[in-house]
Design a protein that fits this description.
By secondary structure, this protein is mostly helical. 59% of the residues lie in helices and 6% in strands. It contains nine helices and four strands; from the N terminus they run H-H-H-E-E-H-H-H-H-E-E-H-H. It holds the Pfam family Rhomboid. It is a multi-pass membrane protein.
């Protein structure tokens, strides 16, 4: 792990990688050893899940899942993309905010993303009973912070092969997530969780008095 990363970002990277390694070692995809307790399950009554070998588990929402889901990932590419974004944006933003504010910001975005996901499922997909995992909601919050603090810095939005200002990047990306979520495009991705993390982060920055291009 690079030693030049500030402490909170470095520790978040380490924690995510260790949890993913534990998921792999416990064969979590098949056993649900961690998923049954720490992934974000829809709010409501528990369900009975046959884990095989006569083992039946009661699975459902628990309050700690609002945080723990953000340290679990659904596959190798999932964690690689999220950790790359955390590495790219986290250290810079932590240096600007300071460790305390960065920690508050990161976990506010993470929890807000979870609440947004739970609300959408409860209101519109009440028959759905599968979990949400990943740090993407917090990562979208970091992306929003980058755009707010460095609006003119260039980022590349795939598949557009040119750099565009960070503020425009976030608007386009956020709009795409909204369209995908409303239309059901790219099923299996928590689009509204991404939006929840992004919006919560921007609102928190605004409450802290941060304006586009203005240092904290």
């Amino acid at each position: 792990m690079p030693t030049n990363l500030p402490p909170v970002t470095r520790n978040l990277l380490i924690a995510n990688i260790l949890v993913f390694a534990l998921q792999y070692l416990l064969r979590d995809q098949d056993t649900l050893a961690l998923t049954r307790w720490f992934a974000l399950w829809p709010y409501g009554h528990d369900i009975a899940v046959d884990l095989g070998g006569g083992d039946v588990a009661g699975i459902g929402f628990r309050v700690w899942q609002l945080v723990t889901y953000g340290f679990m990932h659904g596959g190798f590419m999932h964690i690689v993309l999220n950790m790359y974004a955390l590495y790219m944006f986290g250290g810079l933003i932590e240096r600007v905010m300071g460790a305390r504010r960065f920690t508050i910001y990161y976990f506010t975005c993470l929890v807000a993303a979870a609440v947004a996901q739970l609300a959408v499922i409860y209101l519109f997909e009440s028959d759905r009973m599968y979990p949400t995992v990943g740090a993407s909601g917090a990562v979208f919050g970091l992306l929003g912070a980058f755009a707010m603090l460095f609006p003119r810095e260039k980022l590349m939005l795939i598949p557009i092969p040119i750099g565009i200002p960070a503020w425009l990047f976030v608007i386009l990306y956020g709009t795409a997530e909204l369209v995908f979520g409303v239309t059901g495009t790219l099923a299996g991705i928590a689009h509204f969780a991404h939006l929840g993390g992004l919006v919560a982060g921007l609102c928190l920055l605004w409450a802290w008095g941060v304006r586009p291009g203005r240092a904290m």
